[in-house]
Amino acid sequence: MARRRLIYEGKAKILYEGPEPDTLIQYFKDDATAFNAEKKATIDGKGVLNNRLSEHFMTGLNSIGVPTHFIKRLNMREQLIRSVEMIPLEVIVRNFAAGTLSKRLGLPEGQQMPRPIIEFCYKDDSLGDPLVTEEHIAAFGWASQQDLDDMIALSLRVNDFLSGMFLGVGIRLVDFKIEIGRVIEGDFQRLVIADEISPDSCRLWDIETGRKLDKDVFRQDLGDLGDAYTEVAKRLGVMPRTNGKPAAGPKLVN
Q1: Cβ neighbours of residue 49 closer than 8 Å, sequence gap 6 or more
Q2: Is the pTM of this model over 0.85?
Q3: pLDDT, tens digit, for every residue of 68-87?
Q4: What pLDDT does 215 receive?
Q5: Domain ranges of the chain
């Protein structure tokens, strides 16, 4: 597909002008970042896996009536998506204590939450995507109360879907973050899941061993990030194949 006008480039993806009105082409990069991009590396093949995994999750959500921006995968690194008005928030759903939640509240890593905990962060790299309350969101007009209610409902449905999918392949969904955008359909506004869902945006632990299969492998220098993502893809059956055999996993490029 011929390259079109670049719309936006982030840490892990590039957005290009789409072939039809209100569409974009989302390109998955091989870059890995942590600590607000203070730590960086290139993992050869990471973008291919995240493209396939995000397609797998978004397609599944669409099939159960959870709307997403995903239209179709175009090739190994690109997918066609709907153009949406992004709400400037990250929605974090936590099933077990880990990361900043453990640090803030002094909870032991791995402690199960009494119920899924939903948090919101304001998307601003220069501020480190700070945690915000619903009061902040309403006061600054980032989302209406109806939007917030719908975002929470969507996030819980995504959690139910992903938790079940991962449980079926022996993986615990510890937490994840999603982004949500607005689309106009006729005279009505609709919220849809946007951006991506991949091991970049989830904490995933092997149920039996506790082995981490997500970006914490890179953050904490726990091994090969490519091997971890490849393991997730293989278990879910979405590992790209060559001549009927699984392709080699992503590798760190120095």
Answers
A1: 198, 229, 230, 233, 239, 240, 249, 250
A2: yes
A3: 999 999 999 999 999 999 99
A4: 95
A5: 6-83+226-243, 85-206
